């Protein structure tokens, strides 16, 4: 039995569609506020574009791609294009893909922690934002 290239592509497309649907559920479960204003079609389009960019950085596993689109939901769908350091970190092939993702996530986590500390300090001093 011989499988033709067109058949392989069709199977790849089916797999991609299923993965996007899994990501829709994942984002609605873990990031409901971030995706509530997107229609289903808009969210799926953002996910497809995000997956393409994630793969371009060598993030081949479903886990790494899921983490990438999670960051996109939190920090903007084009977060890797809006902040040059992200693309640079994700493109740094001196590190394995999981380490590159860890570094990006750590930096965003620090940003969130700093923002929370600053907000708490502003409240303590009665400063409105």
Notes on the structure:
- The chain is mainly α and 129 residues long.
- 78% of the residues lie in helices and 0% in strands.
- The protein contains seven helices and no strands.
- It has helices spanning 5-30, 32-35, 40-56, 62-75, 79-82, 84-91, 97-124.
- Helix 4 (62-75) packs parallel to helix 7 (97-124).
- The longest helix has 28 residues, at 97-124.
- The chain is globular.
- The protein starts with a helix and ends in a 5-residue tail after the last helix.
Brief account:
By secondary structure, the protein is mostly helical. Helix content is 78%, strand content 0%.
Task: Describe how the helices and strands are arranged.
Elements: H1 5-30, H2 32-35, H3 40-56, H4 62-75, H5 79-82, H6 84-91, H7 97-124
* Global mean pLDDT: 91
Dominant shape: globular
Question: Which oligomeric state applies?
Answer: single chain
Q: Summarize the amount of helix as a percent range.
A: over 70%
Largest sheet: none
N-to-C SSE series? Answer: HHHHHHH
Task: Count every beta strand, where a strand is a DSSP E run of 2 or more residues.
Answer: 0
From the alpha carbons, calculate the radius of gyration and give it in angstroms. Answer: 18 Å
Give the low-confidence spans.
none
Class computed from helices, strands and strand pairing: mainly alpha
The total of helices stands at 7
Separation, N- and C-terminal Cα atoms: 67 Å
Note the beta-strand portion.
under 5%
